[in-house]
Write a structure and sequence with these properties.
Layout: H1 2-27, E1 31-36, E2 41-43, E3 53-58, E4 61-67, E5 73-74, E6 82-84, E7 91-93, E8 102-107, E9 116-122, E10 129-134, E11 138-144, E12 157-161, E13 167-168, E14 176-180, H2 181-184, E15 188-194, E16 199-205, H3 215-244
Parallel strand pairs: 1-9
Antiparallel strand pairs: 2-7, 3-4, 3-8, 4-5, 6-7, 8-9, 10-11, 11-14, 12-15, 13-14, 15-16
Length: 245
């Protein structure tokens, strides 16, 4: 009987070990936090015991250190723009900069598992530009982010305000769509770009993408003053001939 129970016991032991390793991996996983450029961010932590000492670190560098019955001591480059709540352990950073991006961690005997955060500092999104190209049967519309914007472009998502029959995917690129020229030329479409913190929109009238349809109207406007000039010229010549006679 003992020999029969051994394999089951071994499997149970291995399963329990796997679960412990899996739980340990999850508990050590860093939380991703997004902060706006020049804005503020707060790292929240949980403790079941009152804090007696706290150390917050950015990577391997100290940010701020505190011990019971003493004042918190901040370290460069966070002096003057960091605040520690010694009761909750929460850390707030002000006037965020791109250089602040890194992994943050709290170390304290009151915290069983050291809590880690990965900070991403994001600049406000600029308004996109819509460019369109006419083809034989459709109009290709591209939603373009200005080239100067470099802040976590990989986090930018695109969406379009237009019905599925109106907008068709030209390719796997979500920043462009194709529109049937004949059916929807009188309508507008809108592009939306967003990231975890910001959203911007831009729209375009599809009729402006097909200048050929308005050419007759423009040519007509140009022809009106030319016709008037010719008529005035003929009138002057005819009047001069009449006076001579």
């Amino acid at each position: 009987m003992a020999a029969g129970r051994a394999p089951g016991w071994a499997v149970g032991f291995l399963s329990a070990g796997f679960l412990l390793l899996r739980f340990d991996f999850i508990s050590c996983e860093s939380q991703r936090i997004f902060g706006a450029m020049n804005g503020n961010i707060t790292f929240n932590t949980t403790s079941f015991m009152p804090f007696k000492e706290i150390l917050w670190k950015k990577g391997k560098d100290k940010i701020i250190e505190w011990e019971e019955n003493s004042e918190a001591k901040p370290f460069p480059p966070f002096i003057g723009r960091v605040h520690l709540d010694s009761t909750s352990g929460h850390l707030t950073i002000f006037n965020l900069k791109p250089q602040d991006e890194d992994e943050y961690e709290i170390e304290s005997p009151s915290v069983q598992d050291n809590t880690k955060f990965v900070l991403n500092v994001i600049e406000p999104l600029p308004s996109p530009t819509l460019n369109c190209t006419e083809t034989n049967e459709s109009i290709r519309v591209q939603c373009i982010i200005p080239g100067f914007y470099r802040s976590h472009v990989n986090l930018t998502e695109y969406s379009w305000d237009c019905s599925p029959p109106q907008c068709i995917n030209c390719s796997s690129d979500p920043s462009e769509v194709c529109v049937n020229k004949e059916e929807y030329l009188s309508e507008k479409i809108q592009c939306n770009i967003s990231n975890p913190l910001f959203k911007r929109t831009a729209s375009i009238a599809l009729a402006t993408c097909v200048p050929g349809d308005n050419s007759r109207y423009r040519y007509g406007l140009v022809a009106i003053p030319i016709t008037i000039i010719i008529l005035v010229f003929l009138f002057i010549i005819g009047r001069q001939k009449y006076i001579k006679k």
